[in-house]
Design brief:
The complex is a heterodimer of chains A (about 600) and B (about 425).
Chain A: H1 12-18, E1 45-54, E2 60-70, H2 89-97, E3 100-109, H3 114-117, E4 127-134, H4 141-155, E5 168-169, E6 189-194, H5 201-209, H6 225-228, E7 233-244, E8 252-264, E9 275-277, H7 278-282, E10 295-301, E11 309-312, E12 318-323, E13 326-334, E14 350-353, E15 364-371, E16 377-386, E17 393-401, E18 405-416, E19 419-420, E20 425-429, E21 438-446, E22 450-460, E23 476-478, E24 482-488, E25 515-521, E26 525-527, H8 537-560, E27 563-565, H9 572-584
Parallel strand pairs in A: 1-10
Antiparallel strand pairs in A: 1-2, 2-8, 3-4, 3-7, 4-6, 5-6, 7-8, 9-14, 10-13, 11-14, 12-13, 15-16, 16-22, 17-21, 17-24, 18-19, 18-22, 20-21, 23-26, 24-25
Chain B: H1 2-21, H2 24-28, H3 41-52, H4 67-75, H5 78-109, H6 124-127, H7 130-139, H8 142-149, H9 154-170, H10 173-186, H11 194-204, H12 214-242, H13 247-257, H14 268-273, H15 280-293, H16 295-301, H17 306-320, H18 326-333, H19 349-373, H20 378-412, E1 426-428
Helix pairs in contact in B: 1-5, 1-7, 1-8, 5-7, 5-9, 8-18, 9-10, 10-12, 11-17, 17-18, 17-20, 19-20
Classes of the chains: A alpha+beta (about 600), B mainly alpha (about 425).
């Protein structure tokens, strides 16, 4: 089959000589039988990189990517894999047990501010997000999905078990596979978000354990939770997908990418001084590369250097890459070379700001909010901005609204520049109470340099008292909308993949030269629902049953009794006397 | 009597048209007392929009109407259904009065009434304006006006039931069966009106209500066949219209299992919002049986008086159904002028009218306080719901008491004396 994407194809025989697989036997797989099949064995590969991008507001954005390639023929049925070297066994077992073809899970704390920080390398919505493509051999996708979420919840110490059919959707167009294969049957796709999920050290620790070197060597030593969570934005993700081993795609491999994006704030973490160093950001410096890694690099975005900031220590290596439609220049620090660490044998990058600069406005940006007052109805407004001066492009908007906000699709309006803008494709699946949420996907053409507003009205439902969370007046979260688009690029993108392409530019497959793929997540919404009084179940049951009983009683009386003249009854003394008289056989009193 | 009725219709249409054009129409169509998830117009529009998008209207949980109505709505004249109901009620009460007067005349001639209860007898003069009053009570009732301005499909249901009553009273079993099937098809509860209609026809055809007689079973089976047959035909037609049986769980399953807990004027919503999950099925069954349960006992007690039985059944349906609205209440309230001769035996009428008036005024106030102002909570609205239903139950049982008492007096005399000759009081024993 044709392979539109060709990923990094490193010469493996060359790399194998440098890897130290004989020494580090961390995984509980058996030792690879290198003597028997030298060509087939030990083709796992690990690369790590860190990209540091200074932002114009004085904040700094650090993006870690750890990529493990696992060469195994996963498409063969019934082949039990017990060979784990660099690829974590827990994830490998998950993949084979649930017949997963692609898995993307992210945990995010904070909201990515596109207007201030630009586009992230790997976008993610606040909270937890999980989307999975299953193999088309799976017969019970829902059963697999349920078990998968529970297993992942155990692996990542997150409460993913809250994902069930009431917040899972099957998007028809928005989440196409990022790896090999051209699946179009979205019955095998499942997507769910938990906007309420909180990320903390408990989630970071198992995430770090999945890395081949753990947090003991390489770039992962920088991942210290007390600094990472003291940031404006923190997102850790795991992306697993099938890729080609080489350009000709003769064999396939699993790719596991673990990404961690963090934005450190100028004022909370940076103490107001526009000066960042690795030590200031992570309270550690780099001392060595991960011995298992075939490449370990740090990229610093110096496109704005020297006007904006200065970088030390200097490095002779430079790299240029076209990423997110822009040509950027990077200084490269190759950690596999000893001279990178200098005399102190530790690398502490220092960036010192010299001035303020103008940021390029991102071309696509979206916001969302709830309008209306009271607890009966409301309106969801999604605003999408197209900041391109002269090009219009279509975007795919996907909204997944929980069932207790009943959407009225006949109130859907899409306006651009105060004129009606009818979407060319609408896929709407209405919610079923307590079974599935609403799914609305629309293809909207955005005119150039405009603001498009999508509004839809909803009604708030009253739930059963057991369906509220323990803090019902906090409100209910509605997951972020997803805006996916192919944005026209200012610079021609490279559709061919070379060997030394950095990881951050090869995450999303580039299929055409003139545009790049962007996914923007909006804010999650917090909506209040009317609540019953939680202290009153017994009272309500008693009172309602009383009213029904009053009805029953009155009808019963009128149906079973007849009218009679009311004869007064004898007083008690006379009745007792009558009783005695009856016994004696004497005539009764009246 | 055509002229006053026409004038009444014109006035009613004018009021509705004025309200319809004003800004109040939007407000009224959102009120939970007036529209329920079963009959809101907004949901009909939503169902049509879903059909346009190529999605079945029953795939979501927003549309709960039956599909024949879907077509009908496109041509439904909203203001017209009220007029149809009023005219139908007018004609049926006219027919009923004629029947009553004729029966009374025969009973008088055969000396069936005791001497002192002549003042209880009804004269044509007093009965002359009753049909007009019934039409007026329906058309000018604020509940009806609100329901009409909100374009609730309750008006359509009321029209079908009123036409059913007219056909029954006119003696056409076929039409009556078909219309009852249509009413049952739209919302299941009019099923209980089968018994009073059957009793009326048996009475009209002079067939004694005796379970051992073959003539009874013969007619009953005929009528049941007409009814069940039309129901099956109508259901089959809607299957062919939408191509699937989706509408059965979506409409009838919805009515019976009460999944939607939107507040309304009924007793179900808060009860099932606060119900322990373990007992939910049990109480759903209890509450639904409660609606159908009074049919047999009432039919046994009121087998000589089928029209009053119809009134009682409609009232019980309106009070105890799963999603009541004020439009349902307005239908049985329209009958009250027909029982105006019972006024002297009503015990609680003042209390009941005060309760109902006060509750009607308090509903919007407490809703606003709960949903918009946030200073009250759901208990306030629930309390008014309880009181409103209690007032309705009291009203219905009061009229039942008065009816039974008048019947008792007509057989035993008006001024009753005890054994010692003093004035007696009547009690239920």
């Amino acid at each position: 089959d044709s392979d539109p994407v060709g990923f990094d194809s490193l010469d493996l025989n060359e790399r194998r000589g440098r890897s130290t697989d004989a020494e580090l036997d961390r995984r509980d797989g058996t030792r690879t039988s290198e003597a028997l099949t030298p060509a087939a064995a030990a083709r796992d590969e690990f690369q790590e990189e860190l990209v540091i991008r200074p932002l114009h507001s004085g904040d700094i954005y650090a993006s870690f990517q750890f990529r493990t390639l696992w060469d195994t023929d996963f498409l063969q049925e019934g082949q039990k894999v017990s060979h784990y070297r660099l690829f974590p066994k827990s994830l490998g077992q998950v993949l084979s047990k649930f017949s997963v073809r692609e898995l993307h899970i992210s945990f995010t704390q904070g909201f990515w501010r596109t207007m201030q920080w630009g586009q992230p390398f790997i976008p993610s919505p606040p909270g937890a997000e999980l989307w999975v493509w299953f193999h088309d051999t799976v017969s019970d996708v829902d059963g697999n999905w349920k078990e998968l979420t529970n297993v992942l919840s155990g692996i990542f110490c997150a409460s993913l078990n809250f994902i069930d059919l009431t917040n899972t959707v099957q998007p028809s167009a928005s989440f196409k596979p990022l790896g090999l294969g051209n699946a179009t049957d979205h019955r095998f796709l499942r997507y769910a978000t938990l906007p309420r999920e909180i990320v903390c050290t408990e989630n970071l620790t198992p995430w770090k354990k999945l890395l081949p070197c753990g947090s003991k060597a390489g770039l992962a030593v920088l991942l210290k939770s007390e600094k990472l969570f003291h940031s404006s934005f923190h997102s850790q993700a795991v992306h697993i997908r099938p890729v080609c081993q080489d350009e000709q795609c003769t064999s396939k491999a699993w790719e596991l990418r673990q990404t961690l994006n963090v934005v450190f704030d100028l004022y909370t973490a940076g103490q107001g001084k526009k000066e960042w160093s690795l030590f200031k950001m992570f309270s550690r410096t780099l001392t060595e590369a991960c011995p298992l890694a075939t490449s370990s690099k740090v990229y610093v975005d110096i496109t704005d250097n020297p006007e904006l900031f200065e970088l030390s220590p200097a490095t002779p290596l430079l790299s240029q890459a076209v990423v997110l439609g822009d040509r950027r220049t990077y200084s490269v620090y190759d950690l596999s070379r000893a001279e990178t660490f200098g005399q102190l044998r530790s690398l502490n990058l220092l960036l010192r700001w010299k001035g303020d600069g103008e940021m390029l406005r991102p071309l696509l940006h979206a916001e969302r909010y709830v309008a209306g007052f009271g607890l009966q109805t409301g309106e969801i407004h999604t605003v999408i901005y197209n900041n391109h001066p002269y090009r219009a492009f279509p975007v795919l908007l996907m909204d997944s609204v929980p069932w207790y906000l009943q959407l009225y699709i006949h109130t859907l309006t899409v306006t651009s520049k105060s004129r009606d803008n009818k979407p060319s494709y609408i896929h709407y699946q209405p919610a079923k109470d307590r079974h599935r949420p609403h799914l609305l996907e629309m293809l909207i053409q955005l005119p150039p340099h405009s603001m498009t507003e999508v509004t839809v009205q909803f009604e708030r439902a009253l739930l059963k008292w057991t369906e509220y969370t323990p803090d019902p007046n906090h409100g209910f979260y509605v997951g972020s909308s997803v805006v996916s688009a192919l944005v026209p690029s200012m610079v021609a993108m490279n559709t061919n993949f070379t060997q030394d392409q950095p990881l951050f530019s090869s995450f999303v497959p580039v299929k055409e030269e003139s545009s790049y793929f962007v996914r923007v997540y909006t804010e999650p919404l917090l909506v209040n629902l009317p609540t019953p009084d939680f202290s009153m179940p017994y009272n309500v049951i008693c009172l309602t049953c009383t009213v029904v009983a009053v009805g029953y009683g009155s009808f019963y009386n009128l149906l079973t009794r007849t009218f009679q003249v009311d004869e007064p009854s004898l007083p008690l003394a006379k009745r007792l006397a009558n009783l005695i008289r009856r016994i004696r056989g004497v005539p009764l009193l009246t | 009597m055509a002229a006053p009725l026409t004038l009444l219709l014109i006035v009613a249409v004018t009021i509705r048209a004025v309200l319809f054009r004003s800004s109040w129409a939007e407000l009224i169509s959102e009120r939970v007392e007036v529209v329920s998830p079963l009959n809101a117009w907004k949901r009909v529009v939503e169902g049509l929009a879903l059909l346009d998008l190529g999605v079945s209207p029953y795939s979501g949980d927003v549309f709960h109407e039956v599909s024949l109505s879907l077509i009908h709505f496109l041509f439904k004249s909203i203001l017209g259904s009220d007029g149809i109901t009023a005219v139908a009620l007018y004609l049926s009460i006219q027919t009923y009065n004629k029947n009553v007067f004729r029966k009374q005349k025969y009973a008088l001639e055969s000396d069936r009434y005791p001497a002192d209860c002549l003042e209880l007898l009804r004269s044509p003069k007093e009965m002359f304006y009753i049909p007009l009053k019934v039409a007026m009570f329906y058309l000018l009732n604020p509940f009806t006006i609100l329901s009409c301005v909100a374009k609730s499909t309750c008006g359509l249901n009321n029209a079908i039931i009123a036409l059913f009553i007219l056909c029954t009273l006119k003696g056409s079993a076929l039409l009556s069966g078909i219309l009852l099937a249509l009413a049952t098809y739209q919302s299941i509860y009019p099923l209980t009106l089968f018994a009073p209609a059957l009793l009326f026809f048996l009475q009209r055809l002079y067939i004694p209500v005796n379970l051992r007689r073959s003539s009874f079973w013969f007619f009953t089976l005929q009528y049941a066949f007409i009814y069940v047959g039309s129901l099956v035909v109508i259901t089959g037609l809607s299957f062919f219209l939408l191509g699937s049986w989706d509408f059965i769980p979506s409409v009838y399953g919805f009515i019976f299992s009460v999944p939607d807990l939107t507040p309304n004027i009924g007793l179900f919503w808060y009860f099932f919002a606060e119900m322990f999950e373990h007992f939910r099925l049990f109480f759903i069954c209890v509450f639904q049986i409660n609606v159908f349960f009074y049919t047999i006992p009432l039919s046994i007690k009121l087998k000589e008086h089928p029209v009053f039985l119809i009134f009682m059944q409609i009232a019980i349906i309106s009070i105890f159904k799963s999603y009541p609205t004020v439009g349902d209440v307005a239908l049985y309230m329209a009958f009250l002028p027909a029982w105006s001769h019972l006024y002297r035996f009503l015990r609680n009428i003042f209390l009941v009218s005060c309760v109902l008036l006060a509750c009607s005024a308090l509903f919007p106030v407490l809703w606003h306080l709960w949903i918009y102002a946030g200073s009250a909570n759901s208990n306030f609205y629930y309390a008014i719901t309880l009181l409103f239903n209690f007032g309705q139950i009291l009203l219905v049982s009061d009229y039942f008491y008065a009816y039974l008492r008048r019947e008792h007096h007509l057989t035993h005399g008006l001024y009753l004396k005890k054994k010692d000759g003093t004035e007696a009081t009547l009690v239920l024993k």
